[in-house]
């Protein structure tokens, strides 16, 4: 049955996996950056005003 999956479906599934991975990275990065900003780490390395 796996042989019946079209190339379009494989591309769509691959694209969606990449998008979900990017979304997870963004959702994890937001609280991490907020915590670093709160602790003053971003100012120390010159990424904040």
Automatic annotation (TrEMBL):
KW Membrane (keyword) present: yes
Highest taxon of source: Bacteria
Transmembrane segments: 20-42
Key words, A-Z: Membrane, Transmembrane, Transmembrane helix
Organism: Flagellimonas chongwuensis
Protein name (Swiss-Prot/TrEMBL): Uncharacterized protein
């Amino acid at each position: 049955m796996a042989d019946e999956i079209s190339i379009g479906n494989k591309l769509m599934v691959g694209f969606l996996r990449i998008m979900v991975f990017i979304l997870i990275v963004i959702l994890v990065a937001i609280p991490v950056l907020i915590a670093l900003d709160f602790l003053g780490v971003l100012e120390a390395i010159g990424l904040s005003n």
